[in-house]
Amino acid sequence: MAGAIRAWLDGLRPNAYRRHSPVVLLNGLAEQAESWFRNHRFWRRYFDVYMPNLLVYEGAALHRRIDEGIPISIDYLVEQLHTYLEEFVQTPPYHLVAASLGGKVAVAYAVRYPQNVSRMVLLCPSGMGDEEQLPIVEGVRRSDMQALVDSVFYNKRNVEPGLVDYYRSQFRNRRWRSGLMRTIRGTMEYCVRDQLAQVQAPTLLVAGSHDRIVDPNHAREAARALPNGQFLMLPSCGHAPQMERAWTTNRVVLQFLTHPQPTPRAGLSRFLLAKPSALL
Fold first, then answer.
1. First vs last Cα of the chain: how many Å apart?
2. 116-130 pLDDT, tens digit each
3. What SS3 string covers 150-204?
């Protein structure tokens, strides 16, 4: 089994100098590099990977809008993404892999620019139901890093210590905190569930069985509205499968984006039957 999977993965690797299928990673409320540090090196073996920094909480673009009293909205983030892809990538159609808040941006972008989207993977996307828990708000207000960690991860042993240290230091930055809170205020009420029926691209919606922020049952129900949608529940996982279940997430995403007829459950079973060391 491991040999067959290795042969399939080797067949995807490039044998010559050429462009590869573009994959665009859209983060949630966590900032970009910190969101995908366990994923992008693996995916870069098979794709051209782009990580647009749509949310830089202490950055000039965000604070110009704040100073002018303009909200940080999903529409704004969609158009920022469109500008980035049109000006600096220019190789549509794109695969979108989006987490949490990034899922709202991905769905809205796919509805507005359907010709630009090939396939999507939504990891614990927000905006699937009427209500969501946002303990990050209280965590930021109180500078309580533990509250943030407890809300995101099922197993706190999976938390990278450097990640905790980074956000602890950022919580002390008033400009960063202001950018984060304004982003939450401008995006938290936006629901994309009614837009799912308009998504044309094949889409995999992944939920964590112990997600405390987005109800996994709401995600399962929402996935049924996708015309070309599939759903996968990851056991023993919280709100950040790209970090907490990175080994599995990396390979499920790869299988869904590359297989002619992707079946996430079959792909998951194949990967779990193989030893991780056989694929690294």
1. 15
2. 999 999 999 999 976
3. HHHCCCHHHCCHHHHHHHHHHHCCHHHHHHHHHHHHHHCCCCCHHHHHHCCCCEE
Half-sphere exposure in the Cβ direction for 188 (13 Å, CA):
15
In whole angstroms, give the CA distance from residue 239 to residue 211.
Answer: 5
The C-alpha atoms of residue 235 and residue 43 are separated, in whole angstroms, by 22
Task: Note the maximum CA span of the chain.
Answer: 58
Query: CATH topology for 2-278?
Result: Rossmann fold (3.40.50)
Question: In the chain, what are the domain boundaries?
Answer: 2-278
Q: Are 40 and 34 in contact (CB under 8 A)?
A: no
Q: Closest by alpha carbon to 100, among 74, 62, 70? A: 74
Neighbours of 122 (CB within 10 A): 34
CB atoms within 10 A of CB 275: 9
277: DSSP letter? G
State both tokens at 1.
């089994």
Reported as a single tens digit per residue, the pLDDT across 54-108 is 999 999 999 999 999 999 999 999 999 999 999 999 999 999 999 999 999 999 9
Alpha-helical regions (H) of the chain: 2-12, 32-35, 40-43, 60-67, 74-88, 101-112, 135-141, 145-152, 161-171, 174-187, 216-223, 241-244, 246-258, 264-273
